[in-house]
């Protein structure tokens, strides 16, 4: 498995074969599909770090360009795209930049 934990910020960067295993092991997981050159994605980094530290959700990122098949599988046609998984199944998709509060509220709605 090629899962790599980003330096102490609560955000996991995933490869193709990892996403299903990680979201199945997590009750609630928020996945951001991003690209390196996306300005909105770069602005979302501190928001994701905060969510990773302050919520019970697992926060994951998947680089669309490096993992195109995974992005296509989960309907990530633009960056950033957020997919919320509950018990291993995608339940909600949001496209474009989101506020920290909107993502926090979304996670809270599906958390126990």
From TrEMBL:
The lineage of its organism: Archaea, Methanobacteriati, Methanobacteriota, Stenosarchaea group, Halobacteria. One of its GO terms (molecular function) is protein-disulfide reductase activity. One of its GO terms (cellular component) is cytoplasm. Keywords: Disulfide bond, Electron transport, Transport. Residues 1-112 form the Thioredoxin domain. It comes from the Archaea. This is Thioredoxin. Gene3D superfamilies: Glutaredoxin (3.40.30.10). It holds the Pfam family Thioredoxin.
